[in-house]
Amino acid sequence: MNDSSWGAPPQAGYWGPSDQGPVQGAAPAGPTYDAPEAQQTRPMPIVPDEPAYGGHQDDDRGAARLSGPLFRDETRQPPYDTRQPQPYDPPRTQPADMPYAQPYGAVPQNPEPMPDAPSPVPAPQKKSAGRDLGAAIGVGVGLGAVIIASLFVVKAVFIGVIAVAVVVGLWELTSRLQERKGIKAPLVPLAVGGAAMVVAGYVRGAEGAWVAMALTALAVLVWRMTEPPEGYLKDVTAGVFAAFYVPFLATFVALMLTADDGAWRVMTFLLLTVVSDTGAYAVGWRFGTHKLAPRISPGKTREGLFGAVSFAMVAGALCMQFLIDDGSWWQGLVLGLAVAASATLGDLGESMIKRDLGIKDMGTLLPGHGGIMDRLDSLLPTAPVVWLLMVLFVGSA
User: Fold this and answer.
1) How far apart are CA 347 and CA 296, in angstroms?
2) pLDDT tens for residues 307-359?
């Protein structure tokens, strides 16, 4: 017996003296010493090496250990068995081509995408006219009553109505130019010259209208000289433009009134313009899908233009046949077509001005309509067209 092993604790895996080293799996033959007073020891069981974490799913020898992460957001690493097979491993029952289970807490992937949920169908929106129709109709009826009463009772009163509309329109236009662009077109010479232009057209005819226009332009040039020269050119240019755009074009209504049946000519002019606008609005609101000039006026459509032409041609044929002396229905068709074209162009022209100024309406004087200029936009360029065709068809007397 070796004295160095006396009383020393047995080494791990050593169960007796041997020159071959420790033998695992062999039962001990007895104590390694014979001292009666030595403490008796029990043989230790053989514990094989533990497999790596995550062994085969049929191996339950590690059931005493925690089988999952402590928190839900932890993931097993690795999710499959990476160790080499051991002799004591039971045979695998899982097919080789079966994928391993996903890590704990992972969301299973569906190989086939789920169909998209049907999007909710928006409720159909009711078309809106964009204005207070009740107020617009009331104001329109009131203006029509004033115009008809003055037109057929005393012509001079109707000339006064035109002059007032011209002065208010000039005030709205010059005010918007100064507010939005800083252009100071002189209002005083424009208002005085505009009213004089209408009266001169009714009293002296086309010659008087042209003379009044020239004098008004000269008055604008002189009036602006009383202020500093900065911006002079743009101010007088805007003033001359305003004099031509509002009072000079309105003078052709006064020229129509000078004929023997002048009241009916003016009435035909007003009716055709209103019918053209109404037809464009009604047809465009109900059937309009193709934009006419989206960069200028997005609300106007080609269908609306077709409605304006159709309504105006029918109304023109009726008016020329029954209201105008020596008039014919085919002349009314031509007149209605021309009115629809000029009224549409006039509306687009003022829409272009308002877009450049960055405004929706020229004023707020007429509820449901905007300003006076918002009602004159179709009438002003249509007046010279109707006057000219009337002269060609039935003369100027």
Assistant:
1) 10
2) 999 999 999 999 999 999 899 999 999 999 999 999 999 999 999 999 999 99
pTM of the predicted structure, to 2 decimals? 0.67
Say if residues 283 and 303 touch (Cβ distance below 8 Å). Answer: yes
> Which 3 state secondary structure label does DSSP give 220?
helix
Measured on CA atoms in the order 337, 340, 344, 346, is the torsion positive or negative?
positive
Residue 259, exposed/middle/buried by CB under 10 A (0-12, 13-18, 19+)?
A: buried
Q: What is the pLDDT of residues 57-115, one digit of tens each?
A: 444 444 444 444 444 444 444 554 555 666 655 655 555 555 545 554 555 555 555 55
3-state secondary structure of 39: coil
d(CA 392, CA 258): 16
Q: What is the 3-state secondary structure (H, E, C) of 82-100?
A: CCCCCCCCCCCCCCCCCCC
Both structure tokens of 126 = 């009711």
**Which residue shows structure tokens 């200029």?**
373
Non-local CB neighbours of 328 within 8 Å, separated by 6+ positions: 320, 321, 393
Q: How does strand 297-301 pair with strand 291-293? A: antiparallel
Within 10 A of 146 (CB to CB), how many other CB atoms are there?
13
Identify whether the C-beta of residue 373 lies closer than 8 Å to the C-beta of residue 360: no
Instruction: Give the length of the chain.
Output: 397
| Contact (CB, 8 A) for 335 and 323 | no
